[in-house]
Amino acid sequence: MCQKNILICRCVSFILIFLVAFPASESISFQKKVQSSSETELTTQIQDLAYESGRSSARLQKALNNVDEITRLDSIPQIVMAINTIDTAEDLYFKANQDSDLLSEFILKNKTRLKKNKMSAFIDMEGLINEAYYTHRKTLGNFLKAYNTMLKFMRDNFDDIAKGKIPQRDIYEELFYKYRSALDANNEAYIMYRKFVDQYISKRPALAEMMSKARHDLGE
Could you state, in order of their start, the residue ranges of all structural domains in the chain? Predict the structure, then answer.
């Protein structure tokens, strides 16, 4: 297989992994005294949603790290292993999106109650969900899909591509171009969103501390 198949570009990480800073096994001390069962329920719900979203995002990050480690596609077994890796990443991508949306919807729905109960950190967190976030999320999904489509075509047409047969070789070249375009678009969207996140949390010390802790926990 041609040298192009050595994929060395780094796949960018998924944002909101800092939510792992809210482990379910630890209490969040927003208030020393809980005034009502309603407030207790609110704290439990937001804590559980934040934990689940953070955990699924952290799992996605690990899966993306595995995607990063795909370097050579010189044989069908290597390609099949790569497909399995990306299949896993895609499944976790959809799960992370679902959990993030559930958390976001809960925060929006309960913003007044959260503020009243000294949980404004979650409201600040919701400020990270903007157009740039959704652009990055979409481009990440497009990248994984384009990569998987290319690999599955390579798996099914490995010998013909290696021999330069037409139209298999031309189709492969087109799929490779789509893959690289999707990767570039994702990297660009990530850089833009990361700049926004850094600026946003720099003005919010509590949120910055949460982000720093999560990055440390994940080894960034």
Answer: 13-217
